[in-house]
Amino acid sequence: MFGFLQSVKPFLTLYHSRALILGTGGAAKAVAYALSGLGISFRMVSRNPSQGQLHYQQLSPQVLQSFPLIINATPCGMYPDSASSPLRDYSGISGDHLLIDLIYNPEKTLFLQKGEAFGASVLNGMSMLKLQAEKSWEIWNSESKIS
Question: Residue 113 CA to chain centroid, in angstroms?
Answer without folding.
Answer: 14
